[in-house]
Write a structure and sequence with these properties.
This protein is mostly beta strands and about 900 residues long. About 5% of the residues lie in helices and about 45% in strands. It contains six helices and 59 strands. The strands form 16 sheets. Strands 31, 32, 35, 36, 37, 39, 40, 41 and 46 form a nine-stranded antiparallel beta sheet that branches. The chain starts with 5 loop residues before the first strand and ends with a strand.
């Protein structure tokens, strides 16, 4: 345990998990040849000079037919240092054991040598003594009060003095895998080597003689835990090759026995809640299983890879990485649609941004496939190191609702807060600070940019104040990048922009266009001092529709979209060959589209994978490929020439309906099949310092489209038009005027207003079915708001009785409309008279962008506020009178 977290150490990785099984920190060790999975040791220490924690650890590797035990230090934020290599030997069943006597002295029981080494405060590791091992290959060891007791592969149980002298040596006809000291001697568990299996638990005297043995039909017991009440718990591999957890009474008889998934249990400990946590192996994958005190557990949870998060609904599933390239995991696509078939629409996608500054110098940033180590982006902000943001956060609407219900009970969060809600990188979050590599964040907490709902209006995020992430969709992943780094993809000049990325899905099975769409917002912030006079922003994609080699592409300017479709009615079969094992759509080939939902598509171009890519050819170096990337972003060919059709310049490649026999489409041009890349962009526009540009993109799956030469205008266009209408109506994530709580004065009522655009039904917990209700009794009121998609969201408000002193809510009525608005908001409020009322507007960064002081001595106000000069987006309006305040979220839509 590390505090209340679990620390899991393997040959290659350190992993920290919280009590819910969420990965909270991880680090990968340095690459070494021929990794050996035995003999690991780790302990956390404090640097005497800096006061900061670090890890001392061991690992083993073999090279040139020799085995080396490596001991080194890992310092968070610095890396692996002070490596010491010790000559040893290795077998599949035993390897060197590292046993700590205290904070400085380690005993190492190796197959070749017994050693004592001292780890000094200057970080040096000194071998105090080294003796040849004449007993056998060690399998387990423990330090007692005045000796070291160990076991060997061939059944020896021996004791050494702290000077390495043999005190006693006993022989037992078993392979002891783990030994633990108890008051009367030792407990041990064993491995069975042949069928019928007979793994055992043994009680030994202080001199190593066997008192009793209990055998069971399991393959092996690898780890033993002596319980405070005298009972014994072991883990290992069952007779059916599954992970086993076996709890025995003090006499060795079974109390209960549980088995889990295929694998082997390797280590075990008691948890603060009285249950168990055990680690294990399943093939080449690590397992961590958390149980209650009777060994019962929910479904086993796969350890996530560092920084990754998965979003999925009934049709789609994708993994997201802290990278500019969506979907691509450095080997293959993770965007599965339908997810059950593991078929893909888009292999990869990434933002490209470029612009000319006032001196006509091109600045450019792009990403394609980061598996070659090249990108123009890194994690983080211009003002922050990469380590502080080298991960993806994900939040679901259900997580937020659960948290809100908890907070609404009594203003206190009682539950374990999901890790990503707790550490959400929003302004002022006191729980943001520990990075995935165990280092401490150096970013000023007031610069944290993730959007949030500020319940108490103090401008700072804390879940324990009732605050929660502001998300779109029913599940959202969020991460942030900057191009403030060496541009190894294009060798271009950095723009110095931050890009906050939000990917989100809706669980709305009643409405296919919405359920079949993944939305991604790219919020681009100019952090430089440069005015980019000619700016373009767009999306590059490798649109692999199942098989990559029989696809056509086209554009749909009327819906600000481009798309991929199959050349013929059968995916990956006619006239082409896909790599073995590639999932294809067979005879049910869909269309995949990429649409801009908030800005116009101004350019659309493409290039063929073979010969047209702006990526430098292998083995060549060019000082600047940014110009060539920029040509594609601006709808030009690689050489900068403008595409033409029938002798006329065109902005969009293949903009006509493939079903039109006279139109300009790949289908009617009868082009050869190929693996193509596409780029759609918006621009030019001016991008000044501190400006924000939002590019909202929809990746949509359109099933059941007849082929070949599909009628895109009669099918895909209809879906995209419906999506555009839905997005632009504000109905997907509308602001709700309900506050988290309202105060209810004795004998009075308060109006609860749940009005949202495009809603079709309201169902309140008290049976009301109108958008607004008046309530005169304290309590929790919930309303299910049904959208025109057929899906519903739940909103809750707590009506709180006034205090016994007679204090009443200072606002009796509160209305703001329209909301969303193009900039003009009508505010009407009535309440307790106040000499001064401050009306403040905060952006998503928590910055106050508008502030007006108003006389409220009449207790009534009706006024229009003009915010049309501000950028479109989500804002928080705060009304404050002395220490009393009220906040509401508002949306600007220009």
């Amino acid at each position: 345990m590390r505090g209340d977290h679990f620390l899991v150490y393997s040959q290659q990785r350190i992993i920290e998990l919280d009590q819910a099984g969420n990965l909270t920190a991880t680090v990968v060790g340095p690459a070494i040849p021929s990794l050996i999975g035995y003999g690991e040791f780790i302990t956390e220490k404090i640097d005497a000079q800096t006061g900061k924690p670090y890890f001392l650890m061991s690992s083993g590797y073999s090279a040139n037919n020799s085995f080396t035990l490596r001991i080194n230090e890992y310092h968070p934020g610095v890396g692996f240092i002070n490596e010491t290599n010790l000559d040893e030997t290795f077998s599949p069943l035993s390897s060197p054991l590292v046993l700590p006597l205290n904070d400085s002295v380690l005993f190492i029981l190796g197959r070749k040598y017994f050693r004592q080494v001292t780890h000094h405060t200057d970080h040096s590791l000194v071998v105090d003594w080294q003796l040849t091992n004449a007993i056998g290959s060690p399998t387990s060891g423990v330090i007692t009060g005045d000796s070291i007791v160990g076991t060997t592969q061939d059944g020896h149980i021996f004791a050494l003095s702290f000077q390495g002298n043999i005190l006693w040596n006993e022989l037992a006809p078993v392979n002891i895998t783990h030994l633990q000291k108890v008051d009367t001697g030792f407990l041990a568990c064993t491995r069975s080597t042949a069928m019928p299996y007979a793994a055992a638990v043994m009680r030994l005297s202080a001199a190593g003689t066997v008192i009793w043995t209990k055998s069971f039909p399991d393959q092996s017991y690898e780890y033993l835990l002596a319980e405070p009440d005298g009972s014994i718990t072991v883990t290992g591999r069952s007779d059916s090759s599954t992970v086993v957890l076996h709890h025995l009474q003090s006499d060795g008889n079974t109390a209960w026995r549980r088995t889990y998934q295929t694998g082997i249990g390797t280590a075990l400990l008691r948890t603060p809640d009285g249950g168990y946590a055990l680690t294990g192996l399943a093939g080449n994958r690590y397992l961590v299983i958390k149980t209650d005190d009777n060994g019962l557990t929910a479904m086993n949870k796969d350890l996530p890879l560092p920084g990754q998060k998965i979003l999925e609904n009934s049709i789609m599933k994708s993994t997201f990485f802290p990278s500019a390239t969506l979907f691509f995991d450095n080997t293959e696509s993770t965007f599965y649609v339908p997810k059950a078939d593991l078929t893909t629409l888009f292999f990869a996608a990434a933002p490209w941004v470029g612009g000319l500054d006032q001196d006509s110098l091109l600045h450019f940033a792009a990403s394609t496939y980061p598996n070659d180590g090249k990108s123009d982006y890194r994690s983080g902000l211009v003002q922050s190191p990469a380590a502080d943001f080298n991960r993806v956060w994900s939040v679901s609407r259900s997580d937020i609702e659960t948290l809100q219900q908890d907070w609404l009970d009594d203003g206190v969060i009682d539950q374990d807060v999901p890790y990503d809600l707790l550490t959400w990188p929003a302004k002022g979050n006191p729980d943001f600070g520990n990075n995935l590599d165990f280092s401490v964040s150096a970013t000023d907490k007031d610069l944290l940019p993730a959007p949030f709902v500020d319940i108490n209006g103090d401008g700072k995020y804390s879940v324990y104040d009732g605050d929660y992430p502001r998300i779109r969709g029913d599940q959202m992943a969020w991460w942030v990048l900057t191009d403030d780094t060496l541009h190894t993809r294009t060798n271009g000049v950095p723009l110095l922009v931050d890009i906050a990325i939000s990917a989100y899905l809706y669980d709305c099975a009643t409405y296919d266009p919405l359920n079949n769409t993944l939305f991604v917002d790219f919020k681009i912030i100019n952090q430089s001092n440069s005015l980019y006079t000619t700016m373009f922003a767009g999306i590059w994609s490798d649109p692999d529709l199942g098989c990559a080699y029989d696809d056509y592409i086209g554009s749909l300017p009327a819906e600000d979209a481009f798309y991929v479709y199959n050349q013929d009615p059968e995916d990956g079969q006619t006239g082409t060959t896909c790599p073995g094992g590639t999932p294809t759509f067979g005879n049910n080939v869909p269309v995949g589209s990429i649409a801009f939902t908030n800005v116009s598509l101004e350019k659309f171009s493409y290039y063929n994978n073979a010969g047209g890519s702006p990526t430098p050819p292998p083995g060549t170096t060019d000082p600047n490929y940014a110009d060539q990337y920029n040509n594609y972003l601006q709808g030009k060919w690689l050489d900068g020439s403008i595409p033409t059709y029938n002798g006329q310049p065109i902005d969009y490649q293949f903009p006509d309906n493939p079903a039109d026999p006279t139109g300009f489409s790949m289908c009617q041009q009868n082009l050869a099949p190929g693996d193509r890349r596409v780029i759609g962009s918006h621009g030019p526009f001016e991008f000044a310092p501190n400006d924000t540009f939002l590019l909202s993109v929809a990746f949509t799956y359109h099933p059941d489209i007849p082929l070949p030469c599909p009628d895109i205008f009669g099918t895909v266009q209809n879906d995209l038009h419906a999506l555009h209408t839905l997005v632009n109506s504000g109905a997907l994530d509308p602001p709700v005027n309900l506050m988290a709580n309202v105060h209810l004065a004795p004998g009075q009522s308060v109006l609860l207003d749940a009005t949202v655009p495009e809603a079709t039904a309201y169902n309140w917990s008290n049976g009301a079915q109108t958008a607004k209700i008046n309530v005169d009794q304290p309590g929790r009121y919930s309303v299910a708001i049904t959208r025109n998609t057929g899906c519903a969201d739940l909103e809750t408000v707590l009506a709180i009785a006034a205090s016994p002193t007679g204090e009443v809510s200072w606002l009796d009525q509160f209305h703001i409309f329209p909301n969303p608005s193009a900039g003009l908001f009508e505010l009407e409020i009535h309440g307790t008279a106040q000499p001064r009322l401050d009306v403040q507007l905060f952006n998503v960064l928590g910055q106050c962008v508008e502030n007006q002081a108003i006389n409220f001595s009449s207790g009534s106000l009706k006024r229009t506020f003009d915010y049309s000069q501000l950028p479109a987006g989500m804002y928080t309006l705060r009304l404050q009178a002395g220490e009393k305040f009220r906040v509401v979220k508002v949306i600007l839509q220009h």
